Amino acid sequence: MQRHLRLVPTKLRQRDFIDLFTWSCKILLGILYKERLLPNDRRQPHGGPILPKQLHHEFAMTHLLIQNARLQIDFTAEGNKRTSGSVFVFKLKSQKEIEAQFDFRDDIFHLAVFMRLGNRGLIVIADGGAFDVDVGDIFRRDGKFVLHPLQFEELGAIAFYKASLFNRTPSYLITEVRNRLQIFQMPLAGLSGRPVFDPWVHPKYAEYVSLFTGYPIDKIASPDRSKVMQWRVGPDGKRLVIPLKKFPHRVPRPTT
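RESULT FIELD:
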């Protein structure tokens, strides 16, 4: 029996996070499938697709995980049943103009989705929950406040850059018991002492902030990019409250 997604219930349950993960990844893989069919150069329809066909096979596990929209799947990691990725929901300030209420970004190589729908924002990463374990508490803390869309874009830049630093490929054990799939994720760190995420490089992060906010890098970062502007906390350490009426969210997107 197919479940219907309740995008923003009053109080999110584990099932809601699983549904949000499932449908976000369905959108992402749908985009991937479409780009696999479209030619890289429309002037040469037979010159090869935007993405090679074999790339689709690298996402076979994610494709299996989202089958919980129609199958009974139990996902377990570190001995606990939980969502098979990192999922965060945020409350946002929203403008009245319809065209200003939606934003969508994706990173198919690191399986990350950023979505703004009116007064709600969604960040999803298909990483086995690595991001959630590492900095999830910080994101959940921000989720307690009503954010300006610019502040949400800052969080998107953090999430997408952090996802690019993830250096593990999750491994799974899969069994079927009484028509239910049992998926067990092996410990992400494995037997290696190497951190699960590569070191943070601020100049590279500055590029992500620029892409998400539309501000040129020289406007938001120091010349050496060792310092990057942020909009969530002021110099006094207190949380910034950005009025939407005074600062409407109409930042032009970069053209390159």
